[in-house]
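Need tokens for this chain, all 331 residues.
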Amino acid sequence: MKRLSRFLPDRFLLFLVTTVLIASFFPAHGKGVPLFNAITDIAVGLLFFLHGARLSREAILAGITHWRLHSLIFTTTFILFPIIGLVLKPVLMPLVTPQLYLGIMFLCCLPATVQSAIAFTSMARGNVPAAVCSASASSLLGIFITPIAVGVVVVNAGSAPVSFDAVVKIMLQLLLPFILGQALRRWIGAWVHKRKSLLKIVDQGSILLVVYTAFSEAVNEGLWHNTPIPALLGLIVACGVILVAALLVTALFGRIMHFSVPDRITLLFCGSKKSLASGIPMAQVLFAGQAVGAIVLPLMMFHQIQLMVCAMLAGRFAKREGDEGQGQGED
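Here are the structure tokens for all 331 residues:
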């Protein structure tokens, strides 16, 4: 049963699917729209505030000295992924609608996920301190880099560029609460760290709120009427192709750079994953006024595929002989 459970959707993904279904049949409309928008903004701000309060400066500094590994992870996350999306455009574009392809390019510009990247690295007996440093730094740098990358990629994809106002808004909505959390960490950091369940509730709850709000708007604009079933099936194929390409390239880079097995594992899991937690709030800000539901759909699909594939890979690495990767530090 444990082996079978790795192939099944996790509980949070089931919540996501349920939220999409609720938004599809009972979308917010009228006076409910500004109300849900306000609640969502507060929840997202609280999420980044708590992350700022919880993330220790020691964790950020712990693996900075391993600059070759971190540089390669950041290059893969913010440069290689967009290149893959653009190079594969002739293959991916016919599989999906133009709006879904825009979502694919947005996905390629996002920072790496934090929790699952570290969890899979630990499970696979990789370099955990380096994973903590890279994943955390990627999430923070993404607040600056993703809006710029999306602007460049969206222009190349043939859509309207992201406005400077959107970049400023994302700084205020995401970065400012994070900075406030860091500033108050001395007083509330220990309290927040002891309440991981609270952070998880806010984390997942804010995402579900954003998904409901985004999909309500998209459904009201005719998302499901304008997205044929073949395009949804094509989206699954497109997300799988992008993930496989990223995994193969990171594995190749690890060998070329002669990294140790633990470092290669860290590169594999931190360099091939994309953040749902950061991506959905960013999409709501960067693509305000557009069909955000269609734009975040590729991210939601990619999220589940990466969880299942990386769970299988982590399980295989964990069973390898020898003690490489052990003693790399704890979370």
